[in-house]
């Protein structure tokens, strides 16, 4: 009956653990660094390292469902161990990037599609959550905004229908609890998820500005300069993937996935709400 939550230190995993535990369900929180987990009293923790298969059997002991963070490293071994342990259902935190044109050769999409494929081929029942960009990606601007510097962007008018991480967590909980909490079974489905509105980066920054009480200047820079800045903290193929996506989204509204609202039975949380909840991140 136990539900294993991988990535329990992460922003989605942490919320899924809290929600399931509050609902009275037996949860085990897994992390590569279990000592750094903060979980509610009564929640068991376990070490799970994807490139160390020897950590799998203890983590999966007595587990019927897994909430899985995507990582192709070790996925075949993990599936083998999950099958042997009697796991019945895996809910994967995938990404809408798997649906984009050219996904077969995009590193960002492949990171997710390889895990989807391994699960689809495994015989395990799997539910794929495919959110687009998270609102929390805006945290990447925190230091610049905190220092009152202009945010430099090559594509300030690129639009994203980004999603509140808590909405992803709520859909994950619905998928793991099935009829128990929502009255709807999502088992075995592939669910595209987005926020409720398509916003340019410039508009997101204006909303963060409203949340922190001052205007945030935006400075347009060249693509080459943006590439140089991102390459300082990100692998080159990832930089290329992201820039290509933003170029394609320049001045174009992103489709809204109505799945988020229809699955939750309420409107998806707005970016403005996320900005208000996280204003402290931008004022340090
Ligand atoms: N960001 C997006 O726009 C987006 C969009 C679609 C899909 N996704 C998918 O969603 C997943 C979650 O992305 P995220 O950006 O929100 O990451 P996150 O949940 O904050 O962290 C992901 C995992 O990284 C490990 N980690 C490493 N350093 C950490 C730290 N300082 N604090 C907390 N955790 C840390 C944790 O696993 P351990 O504890 O096991 O080390 C954690 O569960 C990604 O795998 C991505 O593929 C993201």
Question: Could you characterize the architecture of this molecule?
Answer:
The structure is a single chain. The chain folds into 2 domains: 2-131, Rossmann fold (3-Layer(aba) Sandwich); 135-161 and 195-255 and 267-282, NAD(P)-binding Rossmann-like Domain (Rossmann fold, 3-Layer(aba) Sandwich), CATH 3.40.50.720. It has 284 residues and is an alpha/beta fold. Helix 1 (11-22) crosses helix 6 (165-177), helix 8 runs parallel beside helix 12 and helix 9 (223-231) runs antiparallel to helix 10. The chain has a 7-stranded parallel β-sheet, with helices on both faces. The chain has helices spanning 11-22, 56-60, 75-85, 107-120, 142-146, 165-177, 179-182, 201-212, 223-231, 236-248, 259-264, 271-277, and strands at residues 2-5, 27-31, 44-47, 63-68, 89-93, 125-131, 151-153, 159-160, 190-193, 199-200, 218-220.
């Amino acid at each position: 009956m136990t539900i294993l939550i991988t990535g329990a230190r992460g922003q989605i995993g942490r919320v899924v653990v809290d929600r399931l535990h509050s609902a009275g369900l037996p949860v085990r929180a897994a992390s590569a660094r279990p000592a750094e987990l903060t979980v509610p009293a009564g929640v068991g923790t376990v070490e799970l390292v994807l490139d160390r298969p020897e950590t799998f059997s203890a983590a999966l002991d007595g587990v019927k469902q897994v909430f899985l963070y995507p990582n192709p490293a070790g996925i075949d071994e993990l599936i083998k161990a999950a099958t042997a342990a009697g796991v019945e259902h895996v809910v994967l935190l995938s990404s809408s990037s798997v649906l984009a044109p050219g996904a077969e050769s995009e590193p960002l999409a492949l990171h997710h599609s390889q895990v989807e494929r391994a699960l689809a081929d495994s015989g395990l029942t799997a539910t794929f959550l495919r959110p687009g960009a998270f609102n929390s990606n805006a945290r990447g601007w925190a230091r610049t905004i905190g220092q009152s510097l202009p945010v430099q962007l090559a594509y300030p008018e690129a639009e994203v229908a980004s999603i509140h991480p808590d909405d992803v967590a709520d859909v994950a909980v619905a998928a793991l609890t099935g009829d128990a909490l929502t009255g709807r079974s999502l088992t075995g489905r592939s669910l595209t998820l987005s926020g409720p509105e398509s916003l340019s980066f410039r508009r997101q920054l204006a909303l963060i500005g409203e949340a922190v009480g001052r205007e945030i200047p935006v400075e347009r820079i060249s693509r080459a300069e943006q590439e140089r800045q991102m390459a300082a903290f990100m692998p080159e193929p990832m930089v290329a993937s992201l820039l290509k996506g933003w170029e394609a989204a320049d001045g174009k509204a992103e489709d809204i996935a109505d799945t988020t609202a229809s699955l939750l039975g309420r409107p998806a949380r707005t970016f403005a709400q996320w900005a208000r909840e996280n204003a402290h991140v931008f004022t340090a």
